[in-house]
Structure formats: structure tokens, C-alpha cells
Amino acid sequence: MKRSGWRKLFIDIWKVKEIYILLIPGVIWYIVFAYIPIYGLTLAFKSYNAALGIFHSPWIGFENYRYVFRDPEFWSAIWRTLYINLGRVIFEFPFPIILALILNEVRVNRYKKVLQTVYTFPHFLSWVIVASIMINTLSSRGLVNALISVFGGEAVNFLGSTKLFIPMLYVTNIWKSAGWTMIIYLAAIAGIDTEQYESAIIDGASRLQMMRYITLPGIKSTIEILLILQIGNIMTQGFDQIFNLSNPATSKVGEILDMYIYRITFLGPADFSFSTAVSLFRSVINFAFLILADRAAKMLGSEGLFA
Amino acid sequence: MSSIHRRIELLDIILLIFLTIWAGVIILPFLNVVGVSFATEKEYYNSMLVLIPKKVTLDNYKVLFQDGRIWIGYRTTLLLVLFGVSLNMFLTTTMAYALSRPIPFRRFFVYFIVITMMFNGGIIPLYLLMKQLNLINTLWSVILAYGVNSFYLIIMRNYFMSLPVSLIESAKLDGASEWRILFSIVLPISMPIIATITLFYTVDRWNEWFNAMIFIRERTLLTLQLALRSIVLERQSSQYFSASEIYTKQFSEGMKMAAVVVTMLPVMCVYPFLQKYFVKGILIGAIKG
């Protein structure tokens, strides 16, 4: 019975061997460049030795974590990451929703298309480019300080000030990504049943009322999913942005966990096991946040991410 | 009744003003960059703000191209796009097609992919792997590190699964091989998704810098983004406020902004025409995902 089961399976696979051959290159790529690095996370419990490599370095249990947990810079990087990225949920998250609700009200289709193109464009530029643009715009001779001086204010050193650095992270990220996220909400709005609006118009509802009672509830599940995803990214968000926007004056206020990992790994004498231990810890917290956000959303009656 | 009508008109105007201001917030920084890149040093320091320079000069671009880094950047990034996107499309298309067909262990392979969307080893194991494979300081490290984007793969697979099965079955009855079915039947009718995903990969490759920064120390293999980074951050101190410093340094701002323009110009030129493909891509992803 068992043998014939294996035989049948083998025959089934042999029948589709051509498809399996198509699958091979991709699977090899995943094994080598995704799964071996995942296995490489075991370095967190090893003492890395360059001569022995990832696979043969000796196991040392939780030894690395004794040092990680004793490092005050590690803890401050964690709190800074949570602080900055929770701020993103509060200050950045609502903006694309508002933008989508407003753009949806525009009846002139041509103008709507133009606005959409303008809003989404910065998303396709790297943070290297956007940071360069922002450094210029926020500089002493840039756009923003020119506006401030027109109104008689003092020039502000936006990117060199430790106080303003984090707010600037929110502003520049909204500038870059809000338009693109808006598209997702616009798609959700387009999926709302138009009959609801028609009957609301007959009932004499105003446009603001329709926005509040039809459109907003209509995109509720999209909002929830994006919120869960954002919370599930709380430990990993923002490296590209901060790496390119920070400078010696602000490098401390912006040192989120990923910046800390980069600094201890690639700037100075590296202890790859220590770095991997930090990196694994970060992934675990991150995953915990994702699951927690999902559970919380389900408890509040939403569908959540994982069915 | 008419009062309600008028209130609606007012609302429209307020919303349009808000949206137009936001469009200005997006556009003006670009204009500022382009303006400075064509401005003379004198105008930059004498006027409060350069949006459209009174005296247009190409000096900044001359200095930039003499510097050479931007050429290195363009060469590396064009190679990266050429080889990288080819590899991306080959791996993604074959795998997406194979997983759209009914085969044993299909669920296993789909999970095999989805798991990597939630967990990854991060940069350190990947760096050590590249070292062990002797790929450090070669373009191959960057090409291979980003072989398949699981999200794009799933989008493409969903598209293939939405195609009529009868089309493929009848080709099979005619004795066509799977390879042939993929290339002469499935791909020709899947051009919209192929175009969209190719575009996504091209942009990703164009913007590639982090892996390249970690894996490649060789100055002759700078990617375009890293060339820009090294130019803009070269005199990072210039963004600090120091009155004495402002007049002593040479006009590097203009050259930096010229570098920004040269780096983003290709994206800027094609984006308005290809925007609908990008949007289509995210919509397919949003609906199916």
C-alpha cells in the first residue's frame, strides 16, 4: 500500500516533469539566497569564525545575547525605533486616507489624473534621491526657508537640529509615499457599490455625509489591513530614509535599530554573531507586533490578515 | 435647495485648493533642484530662492560630467538593469507559471515562497554568504541578491491562474510542451502583467543602492544611486549654517543638484507615460492579495 503510494506520487510528478523543470531555477534561487540566509540567523547562537563559515562555526547557546542585552546602546536603539515608528502610525498613517477621500471628490477627470501622477511620482525615486532633494529644499537657501523669510521669520536648520529631525522624517516620508498609498485607498473606494450613493442622494445626504457614512466605512477593511501591516513593520521601517537624511549632527536621534546594526556591523570591527543576534531579536519583536496587531484587529471585529 | 447647491460648490473649491497646494508641495522641491542645477553661483547666493534661474548656465553639468562618477554610475546601473531584470523576469515567470499549473506539492511550494515574505535572514548572513561564494566586489552579488520578489511572483501567478484553462489544455492535446505553452501561448496573452512586473523590477534595479553599498567596495562599480550619494554627501557640511563657510567654499550645490537631475531624469521622463501600468500593478496586487 505504502509502496504503491510512493509509486503513484512518482508517476504523478513524472507526468508533469516539464513543469517541475520550470520550477527548478526559482527554487534554487530561493534556497541559496533566501533560505540559507534564514539558516544563517543561527549565527546568533554561534561564535562566528570566518574560516569555518556560517555552517561550521561552533554553537555557544545564548552567550551572544548576554552581551546584547547588556549593551545600553541596543536598548536605546530599540526604544528609539518604537518611538519613531509609533509616531509614523499617528502622524503619517492618516494622511493618504484623507488625500484619497478628497481626491475622490474631484469631478474633473483630467485634473484628477494629473494630480494622481504628481502625487505618486516621488514613490518611484530612491531615498538617496529624495534625501538629496530634501537636503536642498530644507537648506538655508532652500524653498522652505525662503518662504519663512518672506513671512519675516528666522531661518530654520531643519535637518541639522536634533529637535526637528524626527518631525522632518514624518514630513519627508509623507511627501514621498502618501500619494502611492492613496492609490490603494482610491482602488478600495472604486470598489464601493454605487447604489449606496444613489440611494443616499435620494435621501438628500450631503457629500460630507456620504464621505463619512459610506466612503469611510467602505474602505474600513483596507485601512485595517494597511494599519496591521504598518504595525507589523514597526521594527524594520525607515532605514533607507534615516540613513540618507541623517548627518553627524543628528545621527544619534535617528539611530533606530537597523542603523545601530549597520553601524556595529559595517563601520568598525565587526562581530557578526553579535550583529546577527541583534538582527534576529529585531525580527522576533517585529513578528510579535504583526501577530499582536492582527489579533487586536480581530478582537475589534475586523477580518485581519491571517484567515 | 439652492443653498445646498452653493455649499457644494464651495466645498469643491476648498478641496481643489487643498489638492493644488499639495501638488505644489510635491512639484516645487523638484523645480528648486532643477533651478539650482542651472544657476550660477552668484545668483544662488544673491537671490533668496532659485526656481527659474535668470541666467542659465551649463557649468554645473560640465563639472559633474568631468568628475566621472556619474558615468561610472550610469554604466553600472545600466548593466544591473540589463542583467538583473533579465534574471528577475526569467526566474519569476517560470516559477509563477509552474505554480499556476496543477502539480503535486503546489501548496508546499507556495508556502515555501510566502514564508520568505515574513522572515528573512537580513543583511548579515547574506553578506557572509556572498563572501563565501566569492561574489564580493562583483556585480553578480547585487544581481543575485535580488532574484525574485515574492510579491511580484504571487501577482503574476494569480494572473496566470485567471487565464482560461481550456486554452492550455487544448495546446497540450496538440502535443505542445509546457515550455512551448508558456512562451507561445501564455506569455503573448499576458503582456499587460509582464510589462507591469518588468517595469517594477526595472525601477527597483534603477534604485538599487543598499546591497551594492554593502557588497561592492570597488569605486569603479558604484551604482548610479551610490554615485549620487557620494557626490551629494561629499561636502555634507555645506548644509550646516555657518556664515563664514558659505562664501569660502566653491559652488558645489549646483553640481550636486545637477547630479540629482541626471539621476532622476530617466524615471521622470518615462513615468507620466507608464503611470497607468504602475497603478494597474498595484491594483491587481490589492485585489488578489
Question: Can you tell me about this structure?
Answer:
- The complex is a heterodimer of chains A (307) and B (289).
- By secondary structure, chain A is mostly helical.
- Chain A has 16 helices and no strands.
- In chain A, helix 7 packs across helix 10 (165-190) and helix 8 (127-137) packs across helix 14 (239-245).
- Chain A is globular.
- The two termini of chain A are 36 Å apart.
- Chain B has two domains: 1-57; 58-289, MetI-like (MetI-like fold).
- Helices cover 76% and strands 0% of the residues of chain B.
- Chain B is built from 15 helices and no strands.
- In chain B, helix 8 (150-161) packs antiparallel against helix 11.
- The radius of gyration of chain B is 25 Å and the shape is globular.
- Residues 1-5 and 237-249 of chain B have low confidence and may be disordered.
- The chains are: A mainly alpha (307), B mainly alpha (289).
- The interface between A and B is large, with 95 and 95 residues.
Features:
heterodimer; A: mainly alpha; MetI-like fold; 2 domains; globular; B: mainly alpha; about 0% strand
In summary, what is this structure?
The complex is a heterodimer of chains A (307) and B (289). Chain A is mainly alpha-helical. Chain A folds into two domains: 1-29; 63-299, MetI-like fold.
